[in-house]
């Protein structure tokens, strides 16, 4: 066969191959939004009052629509912010337990951190409201076994009331962690929160904290054992004027303790010192009783 004849035969074959290729499965589809530049570092870790805090990251969408985690920061990239942990500390005021919080760099030794902060005592603003600590420095957890934290040497100074308050501070502070349910002091048996529940005031305010800058609307939280489970709140401005009131119902009351959550709002044109008062209305004469006063900084909220 001559080269010219072979070329004439090959031409139809080539055309057929092109047509067959064009009849294949379509490859159309949605590509989704254009990709954005990857962040220079992983998202900041979430604060968690956990004995073994770990950073967390939110997944972000990829080009295919499948969530993917951000890449780990490279050695030359910007370092992520250090993880933190928020711990609850129980101080003493007028012979009762009162909570506050501290946010510190994260550590695996959260029990040691908690006892160190507890011994350090309240801030000047907290001390001005009457908060104090009875725990000296140097008290540490020697081991945690089966949910029981055992302490080393614990000072036995003071009368029975003071010693019991000191123990209650430690128990209520350490048992915030999932790994600790009870605490053992020296050679005694393990004790838990229920053994010191009588040292709580009728109304406990867990938020806001003393000196905190708050914005409207504000959520006031805590626990209470009050008449008909009703907890009342009012907000005072720098001049002592009442700018907001509210009330809520605890999950239990009149002989049992329950959690409460009250939301209040206010209007102020400027930032100023203020006061949050949480109280019970007397069933006898309607007066405010068992009042807890929390000095705060009121953020402006407009007209």
UniProtKB/TrEMBL annotation:
Domain GerMN, chain residue ranges per copy: 111-195
Annotated SMART domains: Germane
Top-level lineage group: Bacteria
Biased amino acid composition, Low complexity: 33-45
UniProt region (Disordered), positions on chain: 24-81
Pfam families membership: Germane, Gmad2
InterPro entries: GerMN, Gmad2_Ig-like_dom
Protein name: Sporulation and spore germination
């Amino acid at each position: 066969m001559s080269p010219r004849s072979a070329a004439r035969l090959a031409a139809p074959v080539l055309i057929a191959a092109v047509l067959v290729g064009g009849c294949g499965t379509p490859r159309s589809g949605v590509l989704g939004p254009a990709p954005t530049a990857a962040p220079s570092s992983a998202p900041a870790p979430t604060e968690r009052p956990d004995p073994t805090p770990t950073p967390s990251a939110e997944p972000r969408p990829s080009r295919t629509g499948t969530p993917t985690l951000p890449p780990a920061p490279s050695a030359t990239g910007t370092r992520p912010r250090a993880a933190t942990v928020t711990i609850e500390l129980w101080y003493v005021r007028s012979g009762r337990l009162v909570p506050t919080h501290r946010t510190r760099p994260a550590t695996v030794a959260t029990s040691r951190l908690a006892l160190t902060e507890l011994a350090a005592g309240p801030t000047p603003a907290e001390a001005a409201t009457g908060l104090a600590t009875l725990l000296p420095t140097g008290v540490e957890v020697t081991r945690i076994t089966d949910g029981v934290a055992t302490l080393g040497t614990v000072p036995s100074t003071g009368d029975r009331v003071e010693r019991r308050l000191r123990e209650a501070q430690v128990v209520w502070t350490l048992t915030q962690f999932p790994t600790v349910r009870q605490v053992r002091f020296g050679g005694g048996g393990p004790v838990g929160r229920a053994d010191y529940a009588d040292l709580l005031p009728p109304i406990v305010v867990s938020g806001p904290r003393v000196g905190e800058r708050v914005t409207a609307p504000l959520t006031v939280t805590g626990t209470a054992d009050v008449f008909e489970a009703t907890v009342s709140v009012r907000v005072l401005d720098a001049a002592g004027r009442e700018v907001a009131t509210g009330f809520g119902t605890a999950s239990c009351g009149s002989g049992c303790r329950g959690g409460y959550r009250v939301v209040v709002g206010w209007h102020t044109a400027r930032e100023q010192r203020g006061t949050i008062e949480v109280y019970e209305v007397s069933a006898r004469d309607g007066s405010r009783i068992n009042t807890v006063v929390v000095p705060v900084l009121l953020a402006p909220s407009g007209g």
